[in-house]
Amino acid sequence: MVTVYYEERPETPTIELFQNSLLSSLNTCTPGGSGLEGNNYLPELRKDPIVGRWVIISTDRAKRPTDFTRDEVKMKGGFCPFCYGNEGKTPPEIQAYRPNQNGGPPAQRDTPGWSVRVVPNKFPALGIEGNLNRQAEGMFDKMNGIGAHEVIIETNDHNATLATLPPKKIEDLLWAFRDRILDLKKDKRFKYILIFKNHGEAAGASLEHAHSQLIALPIVPIYVAEEIEGAKQYYIYKERCVFCDIVQQETEAGIRVVAENDDFLTIAPYAPRFPFETWILPKEHESAFENSSSHMFENLAKAIHVLLNKANQVLDSPPYNLVIHSSPTQESSNEHYHWHIEVMPKLTKTAGFEWGTGFYINPTPPEEAAKFLRAATVEEAVVTG
Predict the structure, then answer these.
(1) Is the confidence at residue 61, as pLDDT, over 90?
(2) How far apart are CA 312 and CA 224, in angstroms?
(3) 290-317: string of b/e by CB count within 10 Å (b at 16+)?
(4) One of 149, 199, 209, 211 is an active-site residue; which one?
(5) Which domains does the chain show, CATH number per domain?
(6) DSSP per position, 296-345
(7) Catalytic residue flag (residue 305)
(8) What are the pLDDT digits (tens) for 9-30?
(9) Which of 192, 195, 286, 337 has minimal Cβ neighbours within 10 Å of its Cβ?
(10) How many CB atoms lie within 10 A of CB 88?
């Protein structure tokens, strides 16, 4: 497990869990499809249309929101390096949004008065200085651990969460993401930039003050590479973007739609790895997050606000991971890939079956998850700031 700045690291799942219910249901079903002891339901195998990954949906023992035992996200208090007045306890800031009071001179760096603040990770997973120095070690390959690791402090309010921020504040955060991506793209050593958020200790967060992280990598990570290659092959075969086709089909079917606005569709994907996994997809094709328009950022902020508040209602404010998947830095405009956000509540754990097979066991069909989330009502937020 990599030590990261006051917090989260690209997460290492713990071992154990929900496979037992699925495996027992497999054991009670005959190959012909008729279950024993009155069990007439078989688990369902579903294939992800992008990467070709299969998942197992445990249809006969479907878990409702109240069936999950989850780690509560609690505010513990104590010293926080991200709070007002503690700017000197973090590395020097890279960027901050501060209002320019009455047209006066810009505020000093590393002082209070900010609304969003970006700092280097105090314990970075990768180092910013140096060359990659790619080399072989016999048949093996290695290089220096070059990259950037930054923390985006989402708000100056220690008790706020991304879900409780008004959409305008979330929009400011999205602009900060964009600014940092555009700056780091200038460094040709970096091939991919990942924005992610761990909310709650069970999701990998070690500090409770709301923040996201950015890691710039000298390689394209395997999960993203699989998505890109799958999307590319789909485009070669059909001359269409697979994500655009998903948006169109899910919009027409409606059964897995959680919410939508003018620019974004939020769905429970057809073959989700995790219960209540959701995706936010642009309705119009766009390959890179940083290429989005100001109007899109406005509506993306609203989509995030709605989804997280629905999840809080349905799942009792669960810990979660949020990731932004976008095109690689040197291929930020293309016809086959489509940037999107994936949100994964931490309701189950990954164990030996998943590690050994690459299959994921999901005890909640996405149609059921979408139904619960869709039914949750979210009051329109007051736009402030």
Answers:
(1) no
(2) 28
(3) bbbeeebbbbbbbbbbbbbbbbbbbbeb
(4) 211
(5) 19-29+38-72+222-375 (3.30.428.10), 87-99+108-133+140-217 (3.30.428.10)
(6) HHHHHHHHHHHHHHHHHHHHTS--EEEEEE---GGG-S-SS---EEEEEE
(7) no
(8) 333 333 333 334 434 433 433 3
(9) 192
(10) 9
